Each structure stands twice: as structure tokens, then as C-alpha cells.
Amino acid sequence: MSEQFAAPVADANAVPEAKSSDTLTWSVGEESIDYVASAGHLDIYDPQRVLEGKMFNVSYVASTVNGEAVDAAKRPVTFAFNGGPGSASVPINLGGLGPRRVVSEGEKFASASYEVVDNPGTLLRETDLVFLDALGTGWSFVADGYDKARVYGLEEDARTFCRAIIRWLDENSRWGSPLYIYGESYGTMRSAVLMRYLGEAGVPLAGVVMLSAYFDWSQNLPGNDLYYLGMLPSFASTAQHFGITGRGVDVDKWFDEASEFTAGEYAASLMKGDRIDPREKRRIAKKMERYIGIPAELLLEHNNRIELEDFRANLLKDKGLMCGRLDMRYTETMTLPVQRNTFYFACEDPAGHALENAWYGAFRSFLRSELGYENPAEYRLSVWSEIGIGWNWVHDEPGMDDTKTAAPNLAFDVATALRRSPTTKLAILGGRYDAATPWWNMDHTMSQLFLPRELKERITYHRYGCGHMAYTDVPTLMQMVDDMHAFYTAE
């Protein structure tokens, strides 16, 4: 067994075999949905019929919608998951898509007396929902004796999810239902490969939703100017949010203006490296200051290349605050001067601190109190430090000659899947204040595919006034209701 991964392998005999379920009702205004909520495990077998692991999942299957019986054979089913790698699906479930939701209020932190309500933005209106926890997260476990190196990797993980989806369709007799996948963050990278693997496994795919998408991992590599380009429009929106720049300008117009500067003058200046004329370098720094609110002198010290951690630490420095990463509108008190560890600072994210504990508490309460589900094992909400750091990023790029790269561009998988299945729909959703998966980078990556018109018409883009976890922002959540209705009902 590989010693690279610290995440424990649970005793399969300790995993509850029976699933727990109950019939519940969602009701908002004059709308209502009766549904069966279930929690349990899927046995996942590899191609040699060896047990790979047990994947925990929570499903919501509608029986009536507004008093009318549901035809399960025709009703869509959507498999949803978070990212990491190393994150369970609780946030996307209790945060925004499921029938229950923890109430969020702007950029306020949830208190210990958080409120849970029937979710006015639930995707259950359009589709049955199955929330999957990746192996090693939540209550999903790698089987005893199974090498975790065969599970914890880009391609390995996507194949596991492919097998899990097929297993669920078999167990629930839902092969006739239109099939969708919905991934967030790293979940969009998983979805990019998974939509190709599902096609190769003969599974028809009606649509894919990518929330906070990131496809080209090379943009994360140190020294890649695409990293700095992608950050600038999101930095500009954040500085405007705090009233530092862009006063009186429409928020979308400000983002678009910053994006135009990014793709034009800023990109041209970065390409010159140290050959840039000092006067041009200073002019660009002053223009950057106008957009992102960081002093030109500091920008010049960094050769007009500002890292996310420097932006977070300096934007609100005069107030003693740092802004978030997943959603830069969230703030908390700045770390102490002695806490200099850069990795520690990068992981201190007020956007995550604001709601994560409330989601976890609501999830455990829902399973135990309403479904009667109990599990003696630790529920592992986020284990990126154990799984993600050792993740195998090597990917066999489709159509490339002898190319296995550890910095994959998964947009090629998306293009391949769409070319093979031109009836599949794709929706890409994201927010202005997301510094984890900046909108500009995704948009740039997709533009480099040079897709034909008929495939580009299968893709819809929705940029919202939110951060990484769009559903925490109530106006965005309700806009997504309309956008997802249009997406699911489109031919």
C-alpha cells in the first residue's frame, strides 16, 4: 500500500450496510415537493471486480411536485459533488442545492444558533439529486487492503465517480432518466474528465453544470503570467466592493473594464518581462492601482505581479483586516505578525470560516434526527491536507501524442466530450469575487478551444455577484433558480 497518503482506510465491516430513508416535504410559498431522502453507501468495484471502496451518498428523489405525481422514468437525476480534492459534498448540499439550507446573511458569520429552512433555491424543483462524497472524504472509505494510490488521483477519482454513477443508476432503475452532473471547484475538473469517461462507458449525458470552474492547472504554476492576469479583474471587483476603487461604476461594467485592461495593456506589459521600459512599467502600475487599490510602489516592488496572499494582506491593512480567498468580500481580523507561515495564511480563509461549521452541524442533525442514520466513524468534511497534497495530477491529454502531464488542461476533455456528444448541454457558473477559480482564467481557457459555432451554442455562461460558493449569496441563489430552470428545460 502506498505510504504517500495519510488518510486512514476504514474497516469495511464497520460501515453501516443499510441505508436510512424517510419521506419529507419541501414547501416554499405555494410550491411543494414530496420527496424521499436517503443516506447510505454504494459499493464500488474496479474492472477486476475487486472492491475499491464504499461511497457515501445522500439522495433526494421526488414523488410529487406541486401535488402532481412524478414520472421517475422521465425526471432528470443530477449527481452533485464538491471539490478539494479532499472535500465532502456537504457545502453544495446544505449550502445551496438540496431541499434544506443553512440561512446565510451577506458576509456575516453564522452563529452557533444558525437557522435551517426549506431552501428557496433548491435544484430539486428541476431534478432528483444525489450528493456523492469522494472516497476518503465524509463517510466514503477505501476498501481494506486497496492501494490508495489507485484512488487518489485525477484520472483515478474520475473513474471511481463514473463507476459510482453507474452503480446508482443500476440500483435505482433510473437508466431512462436524463442524466446530469454538477461539480463545484475541483469538482469541475473532475466533471471535465468524468463527462468524457461517462461517454466512453456508454452512459448518455444530458447536461453538465460547472460551478466555479478551473480547467488549466498550469495557470497555478509559479511564474506563469496567466495567474496574474486572471486575478486582476477579481481583485478590481473586490476593491470596488470595499469602496476603494470603481466608485459609482456599475459592478459588471467595472469587471469588464478591468478585464479589457487585463487582456490588453496589462498582458502586453507582462510579456515584455524585464525588457519593459521603466516609464511604461510605472504607468501600468499606476493603472493597476486605479483598479485594484494596491499602491503602485508596492506593485513595482513585485514587478507588477501581485500574489493573492499579498492582495489579501494589504487591501484592508489600514483596518487591521484580511479579506477572503473563496469569497473576497468576507473579512476577519488579520493574523498576528509572528504568524508568518505563508501556507498557514493562505489556508486562513474567512469565507470558509463563516459557514462551514454551521453546514456540518446542520448535516449531522438532519441525518440523525430526520433520517435516523448513524455511523460510528468520523465524518471527514475536508481533508485536503491529507489527500490533496499527495494527489496524482498526471493526465493523459486526449488526442495528444505521448502526452502525460502533471499540469493538465482539462478543457480538452470538455471539448472532446462535447464533440462526441453534441446534444450534451454545458452551463458554466462563477462569481466576480472568487479568487480560488477566477472567472477570467476560465473564460480565457475556453476561448482557446476554438469550438465550432454549433458546440459553442450548447454552452451557457453565468457570471454572478458572488464568490466561489455562489449559493451563499442569496440574490445569486435566486438568480440561479431561473438560470437552472432555463438550462434543464432547454432542448
Describe the overall structure.
This protein is of the alpha/beta class and 491 residues long. Helices cover 36% and strands 19% of the residues. The strands form 4 sheets. Strands 1, 2, 3, 4, 5, 8, 9, 10, 11, 16 and 17 form an 11-stranded mixed beta sheet that branches. It is globular. 47% of the residues are buried. Mean pLDDT is 93; it is low at 1-10.
Keywords:
16 helices; alpha/beta; 491 residues; globular
Summarize the structure.
The protein has 491 residues and is an alpha/beta fold. It contains 16 helices and 17 strands. The chain is 36% helix and 19% strand.
Distance between the termini: 47 Å
Low-confidence stretches: 1-10
Count of discrete alpha- or pi-helical segments spanning 4 or more residues:
16
Structural class: alpha/beta
Average residue pLDDT = 93
Radius of gyration: 23 Å
- Biggest sheet features: 11 strands, mixed
- Strand share of the residues? 15-25%
Shape: globular
Number of DSSP E strands: 17
Helical proportion, percent range: 25-40%
